[in-house]
Amino acid sequence: MAKKGYIVLEGAKVFCSSSVANNSKATAVPLQVKSQKKKLGKNKYFAQEKPIATYLDDKADSFGGGNGFGNCKGSDGKPYPCKAKCNIKYKDYYENVDFNKSMKVLLDVSTGTCSGYGVPGTIQFATTGQSNNASQIDVKEADEFSVANASPQWETKDPADKTKTSVSSIYMISPIPVTELKDTYYYIQQANNSWSPFSNFNILTPKLTLKANFKGEVTKIIWTLFKGEGVKDKVKTFIGLGGQFNQDLDSIFKNLEDGKYKIEAYGAKPGDAKCTLHIEVVKDFVKKITIPASSIINIPVPVSLERKVGSPLEQSRILNKSIQTSVIPSAYWRIKEGNNILHNTFAGTISPNIVSVISSPSGILVTFKNKGKYTLEAFTNPNETKPETATIEIKSTLGIETIDHGSSLLRYNDNFSVWVKGFNAIYIPDGAFKTVNWYLKKEGTGRLRALESSASFKALKINKRIDEFLFRDAGVINGNYLGKYSIEAYANPLGAGKEPQFSGGDCFNFEVIKNSIDQLAIPATTVPQGTKVKYTATARISPLVGGETIRVEVPQGITNNGDGTLTFTELGEFTISAHMEGQHTDPKVTETKIKVAQPKLKRALWAYGTGVKRTETGYEEETYGFLEIDGLQNQAMKVKIWVKGQEDGFYQEAAKYMLEEKPVTLNSEGKASFQITTNATYKEKIEKAIPKTVDNPNPQYKLVFTIEPQIASTGDIIFPSNLSIEGTKSVTRQGGATLLKVLEPNEELTLTTEQKIVSIMFSTEDGKDIQRTQTFYGKTHKLWVHTVNMQDETLKVDVFKEVPKEAMNEVNHIIYTHESKQSYNEEKVGKDGLLEVSFTAKEEWKTPPKNFDYYIAQVSRQLKDPTDETKKIWKAEKIQVTINDTLSADLVRTEDMEKLGIKAYKQDGTPFTLAEMLELRKQFIFYQQGCLKVSQLTTPEVVDNDVVPVMVEMAEVKKEDGECQRCRAKITLPELQQVFFNGSKSLMEKCLPYINEYFEKFQINTCKRKAHFFAQVRTETDLVTLTESLKYKYETLFNSDLAYYKGNAERCRRDALDERAIGINAYGSRLGNRAGTEDGFNFRGRGFIMVTGRTNYEGFQKFYNKHREELGLPQEKFIALDGNYSGEHPEKLAEEKYAVLSGISFWVSNGLNEIVTAGIDELKIINELVNVINSKTHSRDKRRASYKGGKYLYKKKEGNYETGTKTIFKVDECRKTNDTNLVLTGKAPWMPFAFPEIGQKAIAGEQNNPRINVYFNASSNGAGLNEGTNWCGAFVSWVFAQAGYTPPPLSCRAAMWQFWKQLDKPIYGAAAVIDWDSNELASPNGVGGNVGGAGHITFVIGKSTDGNHYYCVGGNQGGVKGARTVKISKYSKSDIDWFVIPPNYTPAEDEYNLKIMNSEADVDSQSNTRSN
């Protein structure tokens, strides 16, 4: 039941039942209103001059002088201070009045509750704070605006009463009785001085009395004042309460601004037009000034005036006047130039700059004497500070600003039109002077002065046939009309010696031509065979006239249907041409090309809204489908979404398995996308189609989509009815309809209930791709978090940056490596599973002298603290790094997620040095795809992320964690341009595809190998040319390395600039060249490393013959190998593909890859390479600088490589480049040395891999051996040796490792010994010659899901003898005889927890680890 109560004011007495002392009316404490000051900044709402209390007076500071109710009773019987726990929740307050949208009024019947200290208290009012309980109460706002309340008691809300108080309409009783309030009424604000524009008005201050038609409780009707038409701009919260409103007009409107207002009565909420009185407050009667914009001096300009309340009908609606009159207040004018007042009719001033000002009831007529910009002001109220204004510009003389014209392309007999469109002054009265003077020129001829003495010279409009105009008016003779012309208009004739400018808006350029073909367009670049296409052939001038026609020529395979369409009947690439025919036409031909090909599915996938590929979704999530088809454009498709049935025939049961059908249209690039939501309808259909059963209680649901091309019979492109798309699989449904399946099994969308964060990625600035190149400080990027089943969940995102090395230190065995730079707390995941925020790397975060910084993001979820249920903590769920779990270290975080660190212990117990901390960070934390690389420089570089994003218009995400992604990345053109900065870009572009193909084939596939290869190549050729130039001047020959010429002046003078002679003499009888022949010239340097001489060409020919078939290359005879010298073509080595291959041939055949890989000292590696390439060269220092960068000395001259290839290919950042001496305690400290060796491979044939020689040299019995001997034991020996463990005797024999410490079950890194033969017969140290038989040894790193196989990394694995490699393979558990570790190594318990692995590694056996 509703209650009625009195308003509570400041000074009311209040008590609380749980208070120790102030718990009754007799001991109640005073109330001080605090809520208004807290919310509004001051007390604003009053009654009886006292602030009104609201339900936000809910804290102790509002009671008892700020101490609340003294002490409260605790649940333990002890007293506690109210101030610390006071938090009151009120009920039974007055809900209809809402101060500032959030403050309800308290009544004396209102009560509150407070939980206190376990003994809940009830808060009640003993008194209201009112001086008396009068029959009515005035409620005021701070500006003395008061409300007379009809009743002193206001009613609270009754939850049981469903009847709502509502107002249906209002009407006015006075000052103007009106029953239906549709019109706007006016309140006139009188000027506050003796002068008044309302001399004929008797301004009164009557009462405004309104009454409401309503139902419900009268005390719940609110009267409110709003500004404007809506209800958002509330001027007064309430100006009245009850069914009738009665106030002085002045008290409401006297101090308000000009403008429109409305008073509305409502019971629940405002917004009903029938309950509204519209009132406009008028201070000044001037509404608008209208002028004709620019004009000219000494021409009278009319200025008109529009007034407010101007009509008798409007004046009859003025609320605050009693005598109506037809006299309208006069307007007064000010005219200003800048801040200077030239004219003021009110003050009686006028300036000589103005000729005259003539006033009238409708405005003024003003004539200006001087040019300039003037401001006109009009007002009826002299106190108006912002009168209506208008600006006019006065010109000194008439000028032409724009002209208009007909066509700018004309045949010789077309009509020519040009006329003046605009003068510099808009207002020019009829009869005023308007003149024009035309000037004409022809390109190549100049000004045609004959026009200036013709009748057309001063015509306002020229409208003639162009040949007539040019011949009769412009004096063009002999019919030579073709050409380009310019015509310009001037208001005044040009004086002597002045030339027209022929530019700007008063100039028209036109051309007289022979009509010709302009464009031949086809609405597709590729179409399927059998397609009918509408072409567009347009002429330069249209429409065609006088026998002009366009002829379209088509080749065989295309049919011209004669109706503006072509049908493509054969596959291939075609050229279609068109030209113009007819008298006085130009027969030039235009062409367009089109490809007719079988449409091919390029991509179809599910994706997030960012375009990244998606394979899982949850219910109520949005997912996008994407489709791209080569050779099919602008084609309508039907997409059908299905839940995949358990049998292949589910497509035949559309009613059961089809979830939705959507229309899509491929765009001009053959791409289309659509969106689905796995809503309740989807769920119902899916669970009905594939119900849960006893045998299958948790069925897996997968969504797929199919397509159906919609073949139209009309339109610009009509595809054949039998259209097929390569790469799709057709399903013919019952009834004949054909569906095309487009998704592979790994592209299906699985419905899951599991919550997960799938990926974190930084986007490009435009948000359309993953950022794959360096960005710069100050640039803003999107940060994408892709999730499944986490829509609307709140996550925390932190962006970290590496701690500068100067700030790194070790505290309690933790090295903090990264610090948070930006945190996003409580960010919500969207309906599509995407959380997106913006990130900007700030300039102040730079850490010179580094060239770039990596920024990585981490996403955390909020969970309950397991140690304290009342507390929440953040738990990291995903981060953009991959952890090297082969190291005995852990990634740790501070509780506030402000720092990341590595927790690790050194084996020798000493603290980490700075170099060791940096090395540990480099080895332990690898950055993933999608992280942000921010340059501190200004030149962008490619970021070698291992991500190719699946954008809606991009490709699929690929992931290869744990490797250096640059090693296998393709060489890019920008990288080549950095290497060969003086080279030919065209030559680089031609060589690039072969470089990438052959690098991959011949394993120049590490950053270090690439850098050394190109460092040598650019000192040989610099890629300016692929053939050695022997055209040497005398000085060059004299100082060269060529022994025949060096220092021999006579020979140098004789042969200077003679390439043939220099080649024959310099290289004759050397390098396998035949004496007395031209071999020296014919076999001069060619290719990437300048292969020189018959011997080296023969080496390339042998290499070529060996690899030709696998490379798909034709038979070539570069040089004879059989003594038959006819038909040799050494010049072919200068062709790009052979030039590249020749350099790689020399590199691979001479073991240069292995020299690079095995070496540690950079200078030593360079010297060893040079010893093989050209041991006698004087360019060693140049080659050093080519790799490392910097200055060098060559032939007594200083040079400089600003950027070494080591920097270009980021060798120092490569994860495969350097071994480390960092040894940690914990998990198998030898294993970090094994993984970087993956990929080391025996070389089939006569060659040997020097790296395998290094393995043998580390064993106890294999020094000097090579890959001709099975080398698994040598590899294991080398790995253990790197970690400081001495291999057992005869360690090349697998059986001899059984005498190390044996384990019952393997730990991570245990050596698994496999007995293929009779290894159990071996004896320690091989006593008695018992060293065992055939076997294998390898390192355990994981196990299969079923536990029947172990995953192992080892040497001499896979393939056939002579081609085995260091790789990961899996071995049957039953094949392994022993698991061994170093004798002095004690494993921790958790080292027995092997990782479950599911890769498709080969299952190795005796056949691919031993001889066969």
UniProtKB/TrEMBL annotation:
Superkingdom to which the source organism belongs: Bacteria
Name of protein: Peptidase C51 domain-containing protein
Organism: Chryseobacterium aquaticum
